[in-house]
Protein 1
Amino acid sequence: MLRDLVGLKGPKYGCGLDVCKSCTSHINGKAFNPCSVPVSKIKATDEITTIEGLANKETGELHPMQQAWLDYDVAECGYCQPGQIMAAIAKVKQARANGHEISDTDFDELRNICRCGTYFRIREAVRAGAAKM
Amino acid sequence: MHVTLADARPELLLNQLTGGSNSVRSLYTPVRTAAAIAKSRLLQTAATKWGVPTSSLTVKAGVIHHAQTGRTASYGSLAVAARSKKVEQVAVHLKDASEFKVVGTPQKRIDALAAVTGKKQFTMDLDVPNALPTMVCRPPTIKGTVKSVQNLAQVKAMPGVTDVVTISTGVAVRAQTFGQCIDAVRALQVTWNGGSVDKESDATVLAKLKAASLPLIVPPLLTKYIDAEFVFPFASNTALETNCAIADVRADSAEVWAGLKSPIDVQEEIATSLGMPVTAVKVHVITGGGSFGRKLFGDAAYEAVEVSHKIGKPVKLMWHRTDDIRHGRAHPMCYAKIRATYAAGNVVTYEQRHTSVFTDFTHGLGEALTATASKLPVGGLGFFSETVFSLSQSVPYNFGVTTQLLNEVQLDFHTGSMRNVYSPNVTCARELVVDQLAAKMGKDPMAFRRSFMKNDRFRAVLDKVAQAGDWGKAMPAGMAQGIGFHAEYKSCVAVLVEIDCRPATVNRKVRDGVTGPRITKATIAVDVGLPINPLGLQAQMISALSDGIGLGLTQSIHIKDGLPLEGSWDHYFYTRQWNAPTDVQVFVMPANSADPGGAGELGVAASLAAVACGYARATKTMPTTLPINHGTLGFEPLPRTPSIPDSPTDGLDYAF
Ligand code: FES
Ligand code: FES
């Protein structure tokens, strides 16, 4: 739906099975995987944000997490990275809602595959991005 | 200046190939030469335009200055005027290394902004008019073919479906969306002919490899010796972007878009299959979402061309993840046998026999390898394999009489090179035996390696990780350090890991995933002769480390009755965040050469070896099958028919 009909190509196909997480986007601020949600389950009032909608709409300024990704030169092929960034932002917010900053335990809950294996730089960048969020 | 990917250009012969960690090595001097020629032309152009001598001009960040008059001009503004109208031979003087301002300094990726904003375009993100989503219903066994389709008309009438057609690899469906393709593929009722390896499973393949293993020659009679054997199961080189391509085949021409590492070869194959001259086939090379050897072949491009040719319409063809693992190429299973004899503090002989299912190298090997190959003894089918093996494998230790031989078993699986090709298995087996030798000879593994190393460059990276990684530090029971070393592509690397094999770690619970031992820390030292971009080089090592962890602990393919059982990332357990180290340090050794070595694949072998050696030391058991968890199937396999699973609908339940 998102890619073929709406034409938003930021979220990537990596499995279509809710496994690889490269399509991760936000629904009402929470991370979810559109490949595994039929349109019938989306309400008219739901707000969906893909990676394309992350930067500040007026100023075009990047989200601190995107900036951290640049600062740490995280991306290799880049295919997983839109999904990684969307998941990371939600994970940081979830940790905060539970009263703490993102911890190693929280990182271990991120299921996003990065077949280029950038996991360590992702950890560094998420901490830096979180500090500015 | 923007450097872009060229379309397939047959006039480049063997020089348009990405692989063998060869890009930086092969391009370093040509790129510098081209840049120097361009710069001198631009300076001459400015000098002529302003009527001043070239020697009075200076350049800073792409802008030419003339101090006396205060005139400036950017390279861009002079580019058209500087262009040469005729082909001429010129000579340039290349800058001395002492004048380098950029080479050797950390540089960030130029496509990073596009990647993090979702704007980086991969093949499936391109809008080619009327190239509608297309997927293929595939056989229940590798290389099976279609016998008949029972419900072609019904499937053709399904929502959004425009075409259903039988092709050499299955039944292709073209529709308005990929979702509709999935529904149609799943609805197809197909009767299949058998495939090429229907009777093969892990055990039958292994039995054939063992039977074909070349004999060890040195009789273990008069000296002490170690015999060891190892099994490395199939491993998929599947990238995160699945095989995909766009094709538009017309009556007398064809146009293709795909991520390709050997585009000329693909272009020629397509031209042959369509009976068209090569000049009628345009092949656009698109940046890939990973390759790991996969994109050496144009499997998706051939399929897209076949479909488009048959239905007379453009197609945007994509493999499902399950297709990509089950029917995509894999690094073949191999069996390694080693015998080392030792006496009086020396290793007297070292023999290694590597027996592998045949690896497909039909993409060619690029100029470097192919040129050398012509000088080597030619021997039948395994010619290229033998060549790659003998050129890439060497033992970095002074081990007396040393032989490393390859033998292959001709089984018709979908195979191909996977990052670092033979080296991860060969090196891992060797380093495990090196640890055993050290133990038998009463030496510390690090000191043992150091004393047998063939040169100081090798020793320097070992020393670096030993010192920075605090080799020999006290660790709790169930934890250990492991060291791995590898030299190839005129580079070398040492990896020191810490592994936690304690029950609390091994038995961690993760939904639909495997955990097991965890690499908690890694220290890497890499020597590439001349590091061009240390930041990128470090990223390549971090990346290779993730591969080595997966290959050592969790990631393999199980073959059952002619098909891999794995069908998603929750089956094929590539390293994920919960098994990634929380502490990684990569040291880039200072330049010690005028030429850069290769590095893209370099770190995989040493990382896998370090993981395996660490595991052996932590558990006091040398692993003989890697990954260590291959013996336990950690998932429920998907059915073989339909060839792709249904899309889940409960995604919102997992929102966070
Ligand atoms: S595409 Fe893999 S989770 Fe959506
Ligand atoms: S950067 Fe390539 S898959 Fe993550």
Protein 2
Amino acid sequence: MKKGLQTWLDERFGLSGITDFMTKKTVPLHKHTVWYYTGSAILLFFAIQVVTGFMLILYYKPTLEMANASVARIMTEIPLGWIIRSVHSWASSFMIAFVFVHLLSIWIAKSYRRPRELTWMSGVLLLFISLFFGFTGYLLPWDDLSFSATKVGTDIPRAIPVVGAWVTKLLRGGEDVTGDTLTRFFGIHVCMLPVFLFILLAVHIYLVQKQGMSLPLEAEDNQEKVKEIPFWPNFVFREMIVWLLLIGILFSVAIFFPPSLEKAADVMAPAPEGIKPEWYFLFLFQTLKIFPAHVLFVSGETLAVLLMLFAVVMFFFLPFFDNKPTGTKGKVITLLAYVFILYALIMSVWSLL
Amino acid sequence: MKLKHSLFTRRQFLNGLIGGWVGAFLASLVYPVVKFIFPPYKEPDEVILPLSDFQDMPPNSVKNFAWGSKLGLVKKNDDGTHFAFVGVCTHLDCNVAYMDDQRKFFCACHDGWYDENGINIGGPPPTPLRRLTLVITEEEMIVKKESPEETS
Ligand code: FES
């Protein structure tokens, strides 16, 4: 019976190509293999986001009047609502943390080297989409903190010469953060970003399959045979162990540390003390804070934002700069990854003091 | 095929023509999209407030009003005069608060400070708070969008 269905489907879809590929796919085993697991961990958290997102949307109402109250209702009235929201909020943090780790490990191992430049670039775009997911989702509970953080966040592009004011307006849906912004962020969060993410994810995963797993530099030079295990079922089973562990950790923190909900944002109230963006924006937040109002002829803000944009562009095209992995330039670029980690850590901790 | 005195071939000409049409067609599709995603906004020319709301303000205090979709602040000075500000930080747009004990405006977002006249004196804000002109009549307080220097 099962065979029959399989042939039936295969005749129509031609699936055997894919299943053949999967059974032949192997994963190299070496001392850096652990980083291979970060990719599927991201997928796991993303799947959790999709499912919990589908659930939250059953009760959430994206309007000025209802947003905060509907989240409060999810937290207090809907059976297990608080866990669902907590998991959604925590899984977003976990997902972004793993995206960072994934990218940094690739940067340090230089896995983006030829011919994997496009895999890296699609990955960087996926990072931005993830961050934008986080940024838009943060506003949705519409409380004091998220309102002020969004005011600041959407005002930052204004410092970009020429197009800046336009970008701010585009994000906010007007001059100020209002009910229009909330509705707009909601639409971006649940409708636009998922579409873009799925397209890029498909490209990203296709490229990874097409080119196979990247080997560490040393292993590639040594020319000696690296040990390999079959992807299915050996590697997948190992991944499942990791998933179970991660799900355990995620649910534990979600249950013990649910996110809070402040009172509904008042558009006319002064910004509350201690406004902070999500942790993954803290280092940028602190960078903005320490820039003086004026540096030479430009405003400090413009300079800071332009520097950040420059860094982002360099990051996106990194594989093309890092084209001689074993030379001095390659070493410096690896070092930069550590400098970045250190910088982000110091700035984030500082912002919390 | 290229005619003797022509600058381009017939193929190039037709490709250019079709390309131009397609481009113009796409532009005509993009235009309404761009128009649609920016809602219209106009800053109010003036806002009229009942004077009675502001009569019992003690000196050295502020009171909110709505300046369009932004926070507006009316401040009563020690000499009994009033100032009106847009209560939005010039750094990154947070609403500011008036600290009457310190006689300063404070922005909690990145620790920005302004003195009691709205002049930026500390932290990241690059310019003073925006002043609005305030005209007080028998029963009304009229806030106008020009700054006091412009009107006087
Ligand atoms: S927004 Fe006021 S100091 Fe940054």
Protein 3
Amino acid sequence: MAFSISFQSSILTTTIGVFKRSLSTTRMLANKQMTVRDALNTAMDDEMERDERVFILGEEVALYDGAYKVSRGLYKKYGEQRVIDTPITEIGFAGIAVGAAMAGLRPICEFMTFNFSMQAIDHVINSAAKTFYMSAGRVNVPIVFRGPNGAAAGVAAQHSQCFGAWYGQCPGLKVISPYSSEDARGLLKAAIRDPDPVVFLENELLYGNQYPITDEVLDKEFVLPIGKAKIERKGDHITLVAHSKGVELALEAAKELSSVGIEAEVINLRSLRPLDINTIIESVVRTNHIISVEQGWPYAGIGSEIAAQIMESEAFYHLDAPLIRVTGADVPMPYTKSLEIAALPQINDIAEAVKRILGVKDV
Amino acid sequence: MMYSSVMLKRLTNLNFFKKQYMLYSSISGNIQDLSYRGINKVNFIPTLDINEPSLNSMPIFRILDDNGDIVSNCNSVPVIIPENDELLKMYKSMVLLSIMDKILYESQRQGRISFYMTNEGEEAAQIGSAAGIHFNDQVYGQYREAGVLLFRGFTPEQFMNQCFGNIEDLGKGKQMPVHYGSKDLNFVTLSSPLTTQLPQAVGTAYSFKLLKNNRCTIVYFGEGAASEGDAHAAFNFASTLNCPIIFFCRNNGFAISTPANEQYRGDGIISHGPGYGIATIRVDGNDILAVYNATLKAREYVMTNTRPLILEAMTYRRGHHSTSDDSTAYRSKDEIEQWANKNPITRLKKFLEKKNLWNDQYELEYTKDTKKQIMQMFAIASKKNKPNWKEMFNDVYYEIPDHLLEQMNSLENHISHYPEHYVIE
Ligand SMILES: Cc1ncc(C[n+]2csc(CCOP(=O)(O)OP(=O)(O)O)c2C)c(N)n1
């Protein structure tokens, strides 16, 4: 029996927008800062320098520096053999990436957005993910498929959706969904070095965000382990599990809740497959409450998977209330801003859900 | 050229195929009796040659030169010049389109709408082809065909309501700006993933053929979109299924920043014609009379032969790709300037002036009035309410399922508890 209760997102007043902006300026006050875009860019640069087999291909990645400028300067530095502008055919260049990886190169295949990876999905699922298995371990396919994923702003149904659950379902793939600059840099470097195909789901709305970064993270040999979550905020009352943009929402909700005496623990999943269920379980054992937060759809989503895995673990016996999923609404993304806001989980949806689960009356 | 036209005649001739199959039963050692199922004509030669692709380019059909004069050797084709009223309608539509483009483009710059794509430089290709097809024909666009929709009767108000996603938007605020559509005007709502419209348009053409309803399909696409596998599937199916469809390629030199000569190495998009056994026309896309005539002829061809045709309009995308692009990063100001001199609107204007159908005074009045009207419509569209939040749950399914009804009700409950947090329109 499943307990999962889907919590709908709701319309929000414009004050939240102001709130968000003020938060991102406080971030800039920390020591060393780096944008997610630069983190991704330097990660590719490091790895291209380190390993000649690494090359980038995709639409507009070379001369134009990438549609979102993530590959800025790399064409200039590494030339047209290693940074390749392709004709417009995702199925074509994804297939070429698979073939190149089978033959020993290490392609970074950029999708202008993951929405367009749908054109190429056969190569990702049926070839990249399964070839190692089907060749009985003889041929591995070290590729990184990367690009922006998830809801962007004002671009509606065909440009705003999360493919985390789609790719996460497929054995043979590793699926990463970074939040901060540290995540982006450490995990992309790890993904490029990984012997398996990795789907690397970035978020357009996070590209320009600055996050504090340490010298260790800037080190050329810095990598993060794939499959480990990070506790972004300690708390004893409830666990909020999220990935990508959802982590930002969860952290902001946690901050708001803290002012009414609720301390939420925020787990940044970082990796969707493998899923670091142990970190979640350890947290739930302490907090006895859990909410999952994601911008994608509820049905068979990442939250559903977490709920199922908790049910199957001893953490289930530590729960004081059933898990709640805070997700995008179960509809294609509408365009009009007021509808778009209503279709996406908002900070107050998370706060609401937390209060509901903890039985706290509104203050 | 020779090769393709000979082949096409054969392809359209069913008897030809029948004869080929029969030959297999009567091989007698005579070489002329031998046939392969995969090619049309057998010709053995004793020399081993690599067939290099031809470096020649197919010629471009045009009627008007840059000065708006009919080119001197044009007598060789029976050119159709539209009636004066129609000519003026075509001209005014181009001007209107360009004014609307400027206003909507600017409004995005000012943050009033989230996204826009202009049609600048391609007005003739759009309006000329729209004038050459029938109202009943089904149109599939890519996204840079607002002129086609405008000419078919979509009103400036409708364009603006769509871009604002307001309560009057036919799409009820569900699609992003520029993704117009109108079932009434036989114009399929635009879809963002490139080139998906091509095989779909072939499917539509195939159904028209079976329904014998005297309709054809016209599908627009850029030369960049032609690289997608979908384009090639579409060509092949249209040819093997004998579908009445015009593949209208706007070869405007760029796909975002990728120049056409990096998109492919052949002779433009019509070079696929011979490969797929499809007839082709290449036309000067900045010459509205040439585009109009080419489209008329193409339509007649696809309807009488029940065959596809690729029509390639050579033109230039003068504006940025979209409001997310700055094209000065990858092309020179000089180049853009050069093409400004080949403005398709000016070319028709010169022609009309020579026919005494237009003059500077008319131009001044028409542009002034049009600008004023469009600005007014813009102001109205921007102030209209947005669709009710409930709209979010409609149209996911034909009938709204229980779980969405539940969500809608709980959201309604939630809003009534916290009305101060919501903008209800
Ligand atoms: C499947 C897919 N891949 C990539 C894109 C991103 N994209 C949008 S427009 C465009 C360029 C298309 O160029 P072209 O077909 O030449 O048309 P033009 O813009 O020149 O009119 C690209 C790459 C997309 N919309 N869909």
Protein 4
Amino acid sequence: MNSLLELNQVEAHIQKFHILQGINFGVKKGGVTVLLGRNGAGKTTTLRTIMGLNQVSKGTIRFKDEKINDLPPHKIANLGIGYVPEDQGIFGELTVGENMRVAMKKEDEETTRRMEWVLELFPDLKKFWKKPGGALSGGQKQMLAIARAYVNKNELLLIDEPSKGLAPIIVDKVTESIEQMKENTTILLVEQNFMMASKIGNQFFIIDDGKTVHEGQMEELKNDKGLMKKYLGIS
Amino acid sequence: MDLIIGLTVNGLATGMLIFLLAAGLTLIFGLMSVLNFAHGGLFIWGAYTGVWSFQMTGSFIVGIIIAIITGLLLGLVTERLIIRPVYGNHIQQILITLGFMLVLQEFIKVVFGPDQKAVFPPEILQGSFLVGDIVLIKYRLFIIAVGLLIFIVSSFILKRTRVGLIVRAGVMNKEMVQSLGINIKLVFMLVFMVGSGMAALSGILHAVYSGVIYAEMGLEFSILAFIVVVIGGMGSFSGSLFAAILVGLAQAFMAYYVPALSLAVNMLLMTVVLIFRPQGLFGKG
Ligand SMILES: Nc1ncnc2c1ncn2[C@@H]1O[C@H](COP(=O)(O)OP(=O)(O)O)[C@@H](O)[C@H]1O
Ligand SMILES: [Mg+2]
């Protein structure tokens, strides 16, 4: 077995639009793989397609060597993939505790242990346990979304732009939490905040106009000004 | 004074019957944005099978249970055969569920005959209590009690159990619920069945309340339920109780004081709500 998750020539449409036109990458077990690319490049669509929320029109997606592109989202999730969407997907009228309860598939020892761990990581969630999710701050929502994905024993987490719209100090907190999670979970991260991405990323793939156009080790990218400018608009 | 109380009891009883019908509709719409015009068909099937088994066995409880079982099973069939192929398409939903409504209605006539049938409450629920000068009709109190009980039990399930939380989460964000590993289709089927069971319960209770059943009453009564769903806010469970009681009371008082307006008053209420609060009283803007 080579990769935990593997996308091979994946194409996808949203309505009539041909959004993904050839996505190829593999996520190795362990560590953080970062998807980079400008706004509108197709990063979110890639994650949604992995989750089965968008249909694959061509190509294959494999998770643990099993082809998953025809499975419905809940089956994909139950194979061990947790998803933190770009908008966090918090259930606004449910409390923090109820959001967690919806997420918890089991109430066994392992799940309880993970719950305790994640509450220690994000004490705010414990503090606002009975507060409606919709009343949380942006940072707290992000933490809740990550906690919800982490509480089940998932092997892979897909996290979409967790730093978006957050104050720098909260970004640091979220970065730190992802660093801790990567100890025992593989993470596929979409991130525009280059500081964050380079701090926790191991390997990267660049998506441009719906295609993967570049890959490498995060270390190399930091020194490749040309590449950063061309695809990421960073100079 | 006793007139006011009498009209209030009438209004509350009608309100509860409408609530039982509207509750399923509002959850079905909220969860899957399905417009189900066949809901009234489940109501009449509950009424007829319930009355039939009540009259066969002499037991009202058996009648109620048979009505609910009919509703659950018919709900299952309706969801699988009629609703599933038309998810996401409102026009198709309206056409196919209205069509199915008529099929259910005509099929009633085939099975049970085309004539109206008279129905009487079971002995224990006939007559009335006298409290001071006030006459309280037993069967109406019974309907109010059943409606309240169903509301309390359903609210408890929606607020306190994981299944209930999943249903509410599904109303807010279906994709996220699925991404957490939950089979939303199964949840929806369950909600559809329970909603249909409640419609059928409403049917048998209403049959005995009005004293007569006929095949067209499903369509008539479900229009009230749709008005209630709009007033209460599509997808809001508490909203449907509140609006149902509002409509029930408005109708009861109007029927007494301004009979000519008793039907128009609900349309008027709905229009006013739509103008000032298009998302409904309890709906999310
Ligand atoms: N619902 C939609 N309808 C039409 N086009 C969409 C929709 N969602 C995304 N797109 C288009 O798909 C492309 C990729 O979007 P997205 O995956 O969100 O990009 P990224 O996450 O990289 O910023 C963009 O051009 C966007 O306009
Ligand atoms: Mg995006």
